[in-house]
Amino acid sequence: MIFDLELILDSIPQMLMGLGLTLQLLFLSLALGTALAIILLLMRISGRWVLAAPAMAYIYIFRGTPILVQIFIIYYGLPQLELVRESILWPILREPFGCAIVALSLNTGAYVSEIFRGGVLGVDRGLKEAASALGLSARQRFIYITAPIAIRLSLPAYSNDVVSLMKSTALASTITLLDMTGIARTIVAETYAPYEVFLSLMVIYLVLTWMIQRSFGWIEKRMSRHVRSEI
Amino acid sequence: MEVLTGWWDDFFWGSLVVVKLFFVALILTVLFGLIGSAAKLSKNRVANAIANGYTIVFRGTPEILVLLLFYFGSAIALTALAQVFDPDVKFVDFPPFWAGSLAIALIIGSYATETFRGAFLGVDSGQIEAARALGLSNLQTFIYVRIPAMWRLALPPFGNHMLSLIKDTALVAIIGLEETLFVAEQAIGYTAKPFTLYLVVGAIYLGFSTIITLTVMLCEKYANRHLEIAK
Amino acid sequence: MSDNQQDVIVQVENVDKFFGDFQALKAVNLTVARGERVVVCGPSGSGKSTLIRCINRLEAHSSGRILINGHELTDDVKDIDAVRREVGMVFQSFNLFPHLTVIENLMLAPKLVRKTSKTENRELAMEMLARVKIQDQAEKWPSALSGGQQQRVAIARALCMNPEVILFDEPTSALDPEMISEVLDVMIDLAKEGMTMICVTHEMGFARSVADKVVFMDQGEIVETGPPATFFDSPKSDRTRLFLQQILSH
Ligand SMILES: Nc1ncnc2c1ncn2[C@@H]1O[C@H](COP(=O)(O)OP(=O)(O)O)[C@@H](O)[C@H]1O
Ligand SMILES: [Mg+2]
Question: Which of A18, B39, B70, C238 could form a disulfide with A183 if both were Cys (CB 3.0 to 4.6 A apart)?
Answer without folding.
Answer: A18
